[in-house]
């Protein structure tokens, strides 16, 4: 457990404005060594006792189940499954779960709702970083950068050849976005200067307020597959989107298309993707997310030259990770005070 000696001695103003000793402050469990900004916010608030899993690796499940007992708040990351078992172990004291992520597929929303537990998450602060990485991954995949550096390093670079390592360019292309939200818009804004001809998107319903900013046309899923030269997956993983990128979708795509996923691996049927890539049904795929994570190094997708796989780093900039950790801490504290959270996931 983390607690500075000064903090332990401190008589603090408790969450309801009463003077309380540190020992009587609500206990929060932080499931990972989150960036300093967030921890500093919790530490200097003098409103909570912090119990920290002080490691870059996930807390073992049994340890987590022990540690959450009696906690009022939980600050977690996306690798922790917050389900009925964990909530039962925590008990009725648990008031707030704050996840340092925009994705919330690791949270059992029904179970949280049933228990009246409030949820904080971290949208917006990571939009720029995720959009930037998505563009980088798209270009790395479509212009075959990973293959190219490999060839250059390993002697494959012979003479200049006319069609060697040719890829596909964004100029005059149609870019499709599956799930238009802030991140999809931010990706499109960054791609526009590459002279994209047209943006199209699909979602559960048209989103004109977002689409207008990037002049994107709402189309059906089938049209999205048929028209997109580049298809970027930006939707949340939900029961509805689970496995939605499957053989039916890939079969409708052009054999010159590039598929990019920076949302969640579960949106994609990876066996179908492997078949589509290895048979030439689509030209390439760039994945920042997979199922499982980490993807085993002997996974068939790693054998394909036309598949670029990153280890879930879309939001991994120092600025963004610090901002996510600060927002997660502020969400947690506000929730425990019974105030509006800066970013609450409303159920
Ligand atoms: O959900 C998220 O926040 C991303 O996948 C990681 O930053």
TrEMBL record:
Residues 135-314 form the D-isomer specific 2-hydroxyacid dehydrogenase NAD-binding domain. The keyword Nucleotide-binding does not apply. Residues 28-344 form the D-isomer specific 2-hydroxyacid dehydrogenase catalytic domain. Pfam families: 2-Hacid_dh, 2-Hacid_dh_C. GO terms for cellular component: cytosol. It comes from the Eukaryota. One of its GO terms (molecular function) is glyoxylate reductase (NADPH) activity. Keywords: Oxidoreductase. The keyword RNA-binding does not apply. Belongs to the D-isomer specific 2-hydroxyacid dehydrogenase family. This is Glyoxylate reductase/hydroxypyruvate reductase. It comes from Ictalurus punctatus (Channel catfish). The gene is grhprb.
């Amino acid at each position: 457990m983390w607690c500075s000696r000064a903090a332990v001695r401190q008589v603090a103003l408790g969450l309801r404005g009463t003077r309380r000793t540190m020992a009587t402050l609500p206990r929060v469990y932080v499931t990972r060594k989150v960036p300093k900004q967030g921890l500093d916010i919790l530490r200097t608030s003098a409103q909570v006792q912090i119990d920290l899993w002080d490691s870059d690796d996930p807390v073992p499940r049994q340890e987590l189940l022990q540690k959450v007992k009696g906690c009022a708040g939980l600050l977690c990351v996306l690798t922790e499954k917050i389900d009925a078992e964990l909530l039962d172990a925590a008990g009725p004291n648990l008031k707030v779960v704050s996840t340092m992520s925009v994705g919330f597929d690791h949270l059992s929303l029904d179970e949280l709702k049933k228990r009246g537990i409030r949820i904080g998450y971290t949208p917006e602060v990571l939009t720029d970083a995720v959009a930037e990485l998505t563009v980088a991954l798209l270009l790395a995949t479509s212009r075959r950068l990973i293959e190219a550096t490999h060839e250059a390093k390993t002697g494959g670079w012979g003479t200049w050849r006319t069609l060697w390592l040719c890829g596909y360019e964004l100029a005059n292309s149609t870019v499709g976005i599956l799930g238009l939200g802030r991140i999809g818009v931010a990706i499109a804004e960054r791609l526009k200067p590459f002279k994209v001809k047209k943006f199209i998107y699909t979602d559960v319903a048209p989103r004109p307020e977002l689409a207008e900013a990037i002049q994107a046309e709402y189309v059906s899923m089938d049209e999205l597959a048929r028209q997109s030269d580049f298809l970027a997956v930006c939707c949340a993983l939900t029961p509805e989107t689970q496995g939605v990128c499957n053989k039916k979708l890939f079969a409708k795509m052009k054999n010159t298309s590039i598929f990019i996923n920076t949302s969640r691996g579960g949106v994609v049927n990876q066996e179908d993707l492997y078949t589509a890539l290895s048979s030439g049904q689509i030209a390439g795929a760039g994945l920042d997310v997979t199922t499982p994570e980490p993807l085993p190094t002997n996974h068939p997708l790693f054998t394909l030259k036309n598949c670029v796989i990153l280890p879930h780093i879309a939001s991994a900039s120092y600025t963004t990770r610090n901002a996510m950790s600060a927002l997660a801490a502020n969400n947690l504290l506000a929730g425990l005070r019974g105030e509006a959270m800066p970013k609450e996931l409303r159920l």
